[in-house]
Amino acid sequence: MPRMFVPGPVDVAPEVLQAQTAPMLPHRSKEFEATFRSASEKAQQLFYTQYRVFLFAASGTGLQEAAIRNFVSKRVLSVVNGAFADRWHDVAEANGKETEKLSFDWDQPASPELVADAVKRGGYEALTIVHNETSTGLQNPIKEVAEAVRAASPDTLILVDAVSSLSGAKIEMDAWGLDMVLTSSQKCLALPPGLALGAVSDRAMEKAKSVENRGWYFDFLRMEKHRLKDSSPATPAMSLIFALDLQLDRILAEGLEQRFARHSAMAKRVQEWASMHDLEMYAPEGYRSQTVTTIKNDDNINAPDLNAFLKPKGMRIAGGYGPIKASTFRVAHMGETQMTDIEDLLVAMEEYTHKG
Ligand SMILES: *Cc1c(COP(=O)(O)O)cnc(C)c1O
Q1: How far is CA 210 from CA 72, 74, 99, in A?
Q2: What's the pLDDT band for 97 if we cut at 50, 70, 90?
Q3: Number of structural domains, the chain?
Q4: Which residue, by CA, sits nearest to atom 6 of ligand 1?
Q5: Of 223, 252, 281, which residue is a domain's last?
Q6: Same domain? 83 vs 230
Q7: 60 CA distance to ligand 1 centroid (A)?
Q8: How many CA atoms within 13 Å lie on the side-chain side of 8?
Q9: From the CB of residue 284, how many other CB atoms can be counted at a distance below 10 Å?
Q10: What is the Å distance from ligand 1's center to 163 Cα?
């Protein structure tokens, strides 16, 4: 099996791929509804939430848009310190909202104090922030930001993109007071692309009632009505939901704490390798991602060239993303990837650095 050390789409376990080949059922049948329910209930454990988890036939960006459409009548603040946070801001703008950007240098975490100050001054209905910036390999201190925002502006909804980290790093939605946490299937969950999962708090659902023009497909109030009947308003991505249901069993069988520890150990190993080669991580110590490591290039490593070297070995890493495309490269360590895979990759990278 080829091994991809790229931050999505990632390798999917053969039995999970296989689960997609189950025969179709009518989506309003008892059998399918049981699977739909089982998958949504197990998903709640990943988000550490007692609230609902919606399953959409969409990618993660769809839920960035849904969050804006459901929770923002007018004003939203986007914290931006990476490419995907910037996208969420663009999404808000494209939906005609009054958007403000609170920018931090991409190699710096969001400051809870500065975010709280901005929220207090602006009278924002919602705040968007990315937990794990897949471009920079930086993990924002969401718990601290949420705590500061809650204290400064209790009514502001806290919307979190955890596309590349959910199930690889602990995000306690309810304990941290988050109003929406969204993710995609093709990253840390190690499923094929096409499914988006979004957990939504009760107070966010209340807020949605006052927002006009929520649209139809992504209207959470309509979704909720159907969810209570273990269904969705439009045809769900059934094959992906079969795969999700099995994958959640596999994830819960590994154990969430064990899964977080596995990701964190792989991150440390890659960081250690980079340091040994005098390569610098893009994100500062203390804020480094558990699922993807972004490393500054030096003259020795050129991502396309390294990938050409890795290809015959069935491996692949990722180049940089967006404005730091040329100056960084990324090693993802998420989903099915095990420490032994990382060791194999590092042996190959070692050969590459010595080949002169
Ligand atoms: C990949 C990614 C997205 C976009 O998700 P899609 O599923 O491709 O729409 C958004 N945010 C982050 C942090 C990502 O890594």
Answers
A1: 9, 11, 19
A2: very high
A3: 2
A4: 60
A5: 252
A6: yes
A7: 5
A8: 25
A9: 11
A10: 5
CA 86 to CA 178: how far, in whole Å? Answer: 20
- Cα–Cα distances in angstroms (integers) from residue 267 to residues 10, 270, 316, 325, 349, in the given order: 16, 5, 17, 21, 16
User: Tokens representing 17?
Assistant: 């791929």
287 in the same domain as 142: no
Q: Among 138, 163, 292, which residue has the most ligand 1 atoms within 8 Å of its CB, making it the best to mutate?
A: 163
pLDDT score at 353: 87
Statement to judge: residues 296 and 346 lie in one domain: yes
pLDDT band for 30, please (50, 70, 90 cuts): very high
From the CA of 62, give the closest atom in ligand 1: 9
Helix then strand count (H, E) for the chain reads 13, 13
pTM of the model: 0.98
CATH number at residue 59: 3.40.640.10
Q: Are residues 314 and 259 in the same domain?
A: yes
Domain enclosing residue 269, as ranges: 3-8+255-354
- 284 CA to centre of own chain: 20
pLDDT, residue 206, reads 98
Cβ 39 vs Cβ 53: under 8 Å: no
Task: Return d(Cα 347, Cα 203) in angstroms, integer.
Answer: 50
Phi–psi pair at 101, nearest 5 degrees: -115, 130
Locus of tokens 């100050």: 117
Tens digits of residue pLDDT in 33-43: 999 999 999 99
Per-residue pLDDT tens digits for 275-331:
999 999 999 999 999 999 999 987 778 889 999 999 999 999 999 999 999 899 999
Let me know whether 208 and 271 are in one domain.
no
Residues 178, 240 within the same domain? yes
Q: Does one domain contain both 334 and 227?
A: no
Sequence-separated (6 or more) residues with CB below 8 Å from residue 144: 112
Type of residue at 329? F
Residues with CB under 6 A from ligand 1: 8, 59-61, 84, 130, 132, 134, 161, 163-164, 184
Give the ligand 1 atom nearest the CA of 186.
7
Looking at the CA of residue 130, tell me the nearest atom of ligand 1.
13
Q: What mean pLDDT comes out for the span 56-79? A: 98
Pairing mode of beta strands 328-332, 315-319: antiparallel
